[in-house]
Design brief:
The complex is a heterodimer of chains A (123) and B (108). With 123 residues, chain A is an all-beta fold. Chain A is built from no helices and eleven strands. In chain A, the strands form two sheets. In chain A, strands 2, 4, 5, 6, 9, 10 and 11 form a seven-stranded mixed β-sheet that branches. A four-stranded antiparallel β-sheet of chain A has the order 1-3-8-7, with no helix packed on it. Chain B is built from no helices and eleven strands. In chain B, the strands form two sheets. In chain B, strands 2, 4, 5, 6, 9, 10 and 11 form a seven-stranded mixed β-sheet that branches. Chain B has a four-stranded antiparallel β-sheet with strand order 1-3-8-7, with no helix packed on it. Chain B is globular and about 35 Å long. The chains are: A mainly beta (123), B mainly beta (108). The interface between A and B is medium-sized, with 26 and 24 residues.
């Protein structure tokens, strides 16, 4: 079955750029039945959607982060990536990647999720 | 943005109890609602999508209902493994996709 695994920097200095990659195994990232998403969860808090990308390159971002976020897809390596610039302590969170199920082009669910990776913004 | 409000935010119940969690949307989201279960230190797990469709492999004691602006997640008979935090999510109107604030279900 499909599995997702996040990797990247665990500690980022304030004002720098957070970079994460989500490796997809067990299925192609180029499927027309799915898109690919990033979600984050600050310690002890709820879930915040960051954005999602289709293999065609169409991207949707959370307006609250849009000026600082970039999501891209790497078809040759079956993975997708997140960059978040100008980070502050408020960006400290567990970052998850997830597959998004589509039904007639409409978003239906997020499954599976990666295990998550804690990113701490600290000098 | 569509706001999702879950109630209650905290629920204390016993094994064998029937529990219901409500999720209210600030606008009509038709049936574009999913429910997730999250345990400490773990990623969320999909339980229900399209408001009432049980994800494969999820026990049948979980059920979802509703449409429009009001939705419910029901656990018919609580099992020890069910004590966790539950989130609803709307996928109708985006960006942004939004989540409820969560309902923490604890053992009484």
């Amino acid at each position: 079955q499909v599995q997702l695994q996040e990797s990247g920097s665990g500690v980022v200095k304030p004002s720098q750029t957070l970079s994460l990659t989500c490796a997809v195994s067990g299925g192609p990232i180029t499927s027309d039945y799915y898109s690919w998403s990033w979600i984050r969860q600050p310690p002890g808090k709820g879930l915040e959607w960051i954005g999602h990308i289709y293999h065609t390159g169409s991207i949707y971002y959370n307006p609250s982060l849009k000026s600082r976020v970039s999501i891209s897809v790497d078809k040759s390596n079956n993975q997708f990536s997140l960059k978040l610039s100008s980070v502050t302590a408020a960006d400290t969170a567990v970052y998850y990647c997830a597959r998004v199920g589509l039904w007639f082009g409409e978003l239906n669910w997020f499954d599976p999720w990666g295990q998550g990776t804690l990113v701490t913004v600290s000098s | 943005d569509i706001q999702l409000t879950q109630s209650p935010s905290f629920l204390s119940a016993s094994v064998g109890d029937r529990v219901t969690i409500t999720c209210r949307a600030s606008q009509d989201i038709y049936n574009y609602l999913a429910w997730y279960q999250q345990k400490p230190g773990k990623a969320p797990k999909l339980l229900i999508y399209s408001a009432s469709t049980l994800q494969s492999g999820v026990p049948s004691r979980f059920s979802g209902s509703g449409s429009g602006t009001e939705f419910t997640l029901t656990i018919s008979s609580l099992q020890p493994d069910d004590f966790a935090t539950y989130y609803c999510q709307q996928l109708n109107s985006y960006p942004p996709i939004t989540f409820g604030q969560g309902t923490r279900l604890e053992i009484k």
